[in-house]
Specification:
Elements (H helix, E strand, L loop, with lengths): L2 H9 L3 H9 L4 H8 L3 H13 L2 E3 L7 H8 L7 E3 L11 H7 L10 E3 L8 H8 L7 E3 L7 H10 L5 E3 L8 H10 L5 E3 L8 H9 L4 E3 L10
Parallel strand pairs: 1-2, 2-3, 3-4, 4-5, 5-6, 6-7
Helix pairs in contact: 2-4, 3-4, 5-6, 6-7, 7-8, 8-9, 9-10
Length: 223
């Protein structure tokens, strides 16, 4: 079969089938490249993104523009991972503010911002005010402060799991606010936080069923 015949057969596929094929792609880089092949493939990619419930940028070098462009097309998205990769990530507060405009943000159940060194309280607070359905949030290894936790405590009442691994600027005040207002919280990871051990006792008093990681943290000061 000649190459031109093969290309013609691909071009003859209906957009629905192309969208299904593109929905099987895991890498956002492959999705972006497919979108640039031709107008029909671009429409197929757009439709496939609208069907997606999960999208991960982890492991790829991304920036504000590429991330927000793809997320804005994923209307049914429930799980978004834009954590930092070894190749670097240029997501900033501006990118988080643009993400707020995406239709899917209010319906997100899971979000990972792990290791994004370019974000601060400014962008996180904006995003949390829109991501009101979150149940799982990983914001570990960032430079957020209590201000972000105050926003989480106000806007994320459904939160069940919260990762604050290595967030060394978070204090007891922020932790107490989250545990006190997010009444559905089941697990919180506080590895590396610079807070007094008595703080964990306080958290357990507020929520006796709260699981605090690392294991045993919540028992210090009790024995």
């Amino acid at each position: 079969m000649k190459d031109e015949d093969y290309e013609a057969e691909i071009d003859s596929l209906p957009i629905d089938l192309l969208a299904h094929i593109f929905s099987l792609m895991i890498s956002f880089k492959d999705i972006a490249q497919a979108s640039g092949v031709c107008r029909k493939w671009k429409l197929g990619v757009k439709e496939s993104l609208a069907r997606r419930e999960k999208l991960s940028f982890s492991g790829w070098k991304t920036d504000d523009e590429s991330t927000t462009r793809l997320v804005s097309l994923a209307y049914g998205l429930k799980d978004l991972d834009i954590s930092k990769s070894r190749w670097g990530c240029r997501i900033t507060d501006e990118g988080l503010e643009h993400l707020c405009k995406a239709k899917c943000i209010r319906n997100l159940v899971s979000l990972s911002l792990w290791g994004l060194a370019g974000i601060t309280d400014k962008g996180v607070i904006q995003l949390m005010s829109h991501a009101t359905s979150l149940q799982h949030l990983n914001i570990g290894a960032t430079f957020i402060t209590d201000e972000s936790l105050f926003a989480i405590s106000i806007h994320c009442p459904c939160l069940k799991n919260l990762v604050l691994w290595g967030c060394r600027q978070v204090t007891e005040d922020g932790l107490v606010a989250v545990v006190n207002k997010c009444r559905k919280l089941e697990l919180i990871n506080v590895w590396g936080l610079r807070v007094p051990l008595d703080c964990f006792v306080c958290l357990r008093v507020i929520n006796p069923f709260l699981r605090i990681l690392p294991e045993g943290t919540g028992h210090y000061g009790i024995r």
